[in-house]
Design goal:
heterodimer; A: alpha+beta; Folate-binding fold; two-stranded antiparallel sheet; 17% helix; B: alpha/beta; D-Amino Acid Oxidase, Chain A, domain 2; 2 domains; 8-stranded mixed beta sheet; 18 strands
Chain lengths: 109, 414
């Protein structure tokens, strides 16, 4: 059972109060995009074994979307942060670096 | 290979069972193979088996990082059916189901195929219409299914409650030649047959790099040394994204946990497989007497091979109304596997951006039933460069918008 803290309302709760929303920080491509870019946006996923940045929604709480950094091989949650950003904040990257010294951020794309 | 037979059992009984061979050899990796299959689960082993049997390619190694069939092959609920809506799916899954009919004889290994019949319950008006449509599609595809009445469902499954207050049974899609098989035996039977053809089944051998030269594959690095090869088949289910990453391309796949559980063993009470997609649960009774129960996936990316407890609760709670006896059963054990889910919930059997690398993945929550057909089609694709069974399942379909939308056709459990 994951335990997440909603960065919007501050509530810490079990995963049943939240809903997972898939990979975070995808580049959104729309009309005029190439087929490859649109495919990347809609279907292609990093799906890493290890550190994963993802979207969550606090469905049975404040209803807001937020982001989380989590390890997919241990289920450790490194931290949660606002959805109003296109990249994880330094504070989260520092926490990941403390827990996973070998980890290097994946270059987008 | 010594053939298994009633005569062999009698012969060994007379000499204290000292004459049985190991079912497959445990060789050291050779420096070169024509084909390397990454992944020693059912699909990988079936691919290797059909490369040898159908196409005469036997200089093959199957590399498995853990033990044979230790991933999803040994973690599923062993259901076999082919009642899909879309033509490409029905062709592939029906090919697979038909191969199960003779698999024990073909492999000389008892896979305990039990065509006991599969019912998919219709518990809403939408499902009634959906399954009637599927039954009509199946008639055109040559897949024998029929839409049956609630009374017939009750006749086939006496323990079912067909007039529950929330989810009454309004009918069902019945495939009489669907059923179950022993999942471990499928992997073991294939491994034995592959080994007998001279292929090397190598366990405890993880691929750590896929080497390329000018866009063409040249070999792999493993935890047991370097191996060169002509072609590579990636058949690693939940780890497809990771292994594709080693070859330098991405996949439209997310890996999530799917759980199953079994009850304590009880006397025979249900001799068909029942799937209830509205409430998200499915159940059959194993030969040992355990009720085998499966449900839905967790919602988030996961490689831990364990799932969330609340999903078990949801699955069992949903089944209690339709099967009241479930409420009195003790659950014996629970496990999870990592399934590879694609955007359209259909598999990928395809060439890849790397010349000589082929991928077979995306079977999601329903791969066991497809094991022999998947191997048959993948072997043809790898040997000949194309297969009529895999044409629609290419990696490029996501870019081109040619989806095989079984998430609509199959509902949830699939």
């Amino acid at each position: 059972m994951l335990i997440l803290t909603c960065p919007v309302c501050g509530v810490t709760a079990e995963e049943t109060e939240f809903h997972a929303g898939g990979e975070a920080h995808l580049t959104r491509h729309g009309p005029g995009a190439s087929d490859a870019d649109f495919e990347d946006y809609l279907f292609m996923r990093a799906n890493p074994r290890g550190v994963h940045f993802e979207r969550w929604r606090h469905v049975y709480g404040c209803g807001k979307w937020f982001h989380a950094a989590r390890c997919t091989t241990t289920l450790q949650v490194f931290g949660t942060y606002t959805a109003q950003t296109s990249a994880p904040p330094q504070e989260i990257l520092d926490k990941i670096a403390d827990a996973r010294p070998d980890w290097t951020p994946r270059t987008p794309g | 290979m010594k053939r298994y037979s009633a005569f062999a059992i009698a012969r060994e009984a007379l000499r204290y069972h000292t004459g049985w061979d190991r079912a497959w050899r445990a060789p050291e990796p050779k420096p070169h193979y024509d084909v390397i299959i990454i992944g020693g689960g059912g699909h990988g082993l079936a691919t290797a088996y059909h490369l040898g049997k159908n196409h005469g390619i036997t200089n093959v190694a199957i590399l498995e990082k853990g033990w044979l069939g230790g991933g999803n092959t040994g973690r599923n609920t062993t259901i076999i059916r082919s009642n899909y809506l879309q033509d490409p799916s029905a062709a592939l899954y029906e090919k697979s189901r038909s191969l199960y009919e003779t698999m024990s004889q073909d492999l000389n290994y008892n896979v305990m195929f039990s065509p006991r019949g599969v019912i998919m319950l219709a518990q809403t008006q939408h499902e009634v219409r959906g399954y009637q449509r599927t039954a009509h599609a199946n008639a055109l595809q040559g897949v024998k299914t029929e839409f049956i009445s609630p009374d017939r469902v009750k006749q086939l499954v006496p323990i079912i409650n067909i007039d529950g207050p929330r989810y009454p049974v309004l009918g069902g899609l019945w495939q009489a030649r669907g059923g179950t098989a022993r999942h471990d035996a499928v992997a073991w039977g294939y491994a034995r047959a592959c080994s007998d053809m001279g292929m090397d089944v190598i366990q405890q051998c993880e691929v750590t790099a896929i080497k390329r030269d000018g866009g063409k594959v040249t070999g792999v690095s493993t935890t047991r040394g370097e191996i060169t090869c002509g072609k590579v088949g990636i058949v690693v289910a939940g780890n497809s994204g990771h292994v594709a990453g080693l070859a330098g391309f991405r996949l439209p796949i997310e890996s999530v946990a799917l759980q199953a559980l079994v009850s304590e063993p009880i006397k025979p009470c249900m001799d068909v497989v029942v799937m209830a997609n509205t409430v998200h649960g499915y159940m059959s009774q194993s030969d040992k007497g355990e009720m085998v129960i499966g449900g839905g996936t967790d919602g988030y990316n996961n490689y831990t091979q364990r799932g969330s407890f609340h999903h078990i609760e949801e699955t069992v709670r949903a089944l209690v109304e339709t099967f009241p006896m479930v409420s009195r059963l003790k659950m014996l054990r629970q496990w999870g596997g990592i399934v590879d889910i694609t955007g359209d919930r259909s598999p990928i059997l395809s060439k890849t951006p790397v010349d000589g690398v082929f991928i077979n993945c995306g079977w999601g929550t329903g791969g066991f039933k497809a094991t022999p057909g998947s191997g048959w089609a993948m072997a043809e694709l790898m040997a000949k460069g194309r297969s009529p069974l895999t044409d629609a399942f290419g990696l490029e379909r996501f870019r081109e918008g040619r989806f095989i939308d079984e998430s609509v056709a199959a509902g949830v459990a699939h």
